[in-house]
Amino acid sequence: MFSPATRLRRPARPHPGDVLIAVVGLLGGAVLALLGLHMQTGRLFDPPWLPLIPLAVVSGAELLRRSAPQTALVVGTFALVADQFTPGNLATVLMYTDLMYAAVLYGTPAAARRIPVTTFLITVGVTIGFLAWLRDAEAVLIGIVTGLVSFAPALTGVSVRNHRDAAETARLRADQTALLAEMDRVQAVTAERARMARELHDMVANHLSAIAIHSTAALSIDDPATSRDALGVIRENSVDGLAEMRRLIGLLRTGARDAVPSSSPTLASLDALVEQHRTNAASSGLTCTLDDARTDSGRLPAPVELAAYRIVQESLTNALKHAAPGPVTVRLGQTGELLTVEVASVLGDRPGPRAPGSGAGLIGMRERVALLGGEFEAGPAPPDDGRKIWRVRAHLPVTEGSVRE
User: Fold this and answer.
1) Pair 195, 141: CB distance under 8 Å
2) What domains can be seen in the chain, in order of their start residue?
3) Greater confidence, 272 or 11?
4) Where are the alpha helices (DSSP H) in 137-223?
5) What is the largest CA-CA distance in the chain?
C-alpha cells in the first residue's frame, strides 16, 4: 500500500484523449514507414526504419501534452530536429504540431504569450537564413513549412485558449450573478418576514394584552359588575383583533410586496386608538390623553403615518402591561420635515394583573424608525411631579424619499 506522501508524489495518469492521439499517431507512422512513404531522401541517415525512433519519442511526448505541455514540446522539438536527418515521417510532423498547439493551450499564461512570439521569430529567421544561403525562391517555401509546423499551431492554441478563458469568465460571471440574485432573494424574504412580524405584533398584541389583563381581573375579583365590564372589554378587543387579523391576511393574499393598503391606520385614527386604550386601561388606573401640537394636520406619506400610528399603538400596549397608575400622554409635533411622536407613562410597580412582555415591541418600533431614516429612543425620562417617567420618542422624516427599500 502507498502512504499519502507516496500518493502525492505519484504522477497523474495520462488523459485518455492523449493516449488515443499517441497510439493513433504511432500506428499511423508505422504504416507509412511500412509502405515506404517518406518525406525526404538523401539524408545523413538513410535506413528506412530509423524515422521510427523520432516517431516513438514524439508519441511518448503526446502522453504529456496536458500534464506537462512544455516538457512535451521540448522533447518533441528535439525529436523533430533528429527526424530531419532521417528519411522522415509525416506522422512525426503532425504530432509535433499538436504538441505545439497543446503547449499554448494547456501551458502557463507566460508560455502561452511567449511561444507564439518565439515561433514567429523562428519562422522569419529560417526564411531569411535560407534565402541568404540558397538565394532561391525555394527558401520561401521552407519558411512557409516552418510557419505551418510551428507558428500556425501556436496561433491556433492562442485563439482556442482565449475563447476558453472567455467562456470560463462568462461562467464565473453567471455564477456570481446567480449568487447575488440568491442573496437579494434571501434578503428580500428576510425583510418581508420582519415586516409581517412587525405588523402582526403591532396589530394583535394590544388586543391580546387587554384580553389577558381583563380576563385575569374577571377571574380574580369576585364581583359581577367587574366581571361584566371585563367581559365587555374582552369581547370588544376580540372582535377588533379578529378584524385586524383578517385585514393582514387579506394583505398577504394580494401579494403586493411593500404595498400599504388604503385601509391602513393613519394619524387621524389616533383619537379612536387613544379612546380604546382609555377604556382598556381604566381598571388599571391609567388615563390616556392625546396632545396633537401640529399646526398642519394634513396627510403625511403613508409609510410615515403607519409607522407613527404603530409606535403609538405599541407604546400604549406597553403602558397597559407595565405602567404604574397615572397619566399616559401621547404627543405629536412637527418641525419642518420632521414628525415627532412621544408617549410618556409613569414608571413603577402597580397592583393588579399584568401581562408579560417579550421585548419584541421595542425592537419593532426601532426597526420601523430605522426604515424611515429617523431616530428612536426609549427609556427613563426626567421625573415629573416627583414621579418617574418612561418615555418613548421617535423623530420621523416626512419626505417621500426618506423611506428605505
Assistant:
1) no
2) 4-178 (no CATH), 267-405 (3.30.565.10)
3) 272
4) 138-146, 152-220
5) 129
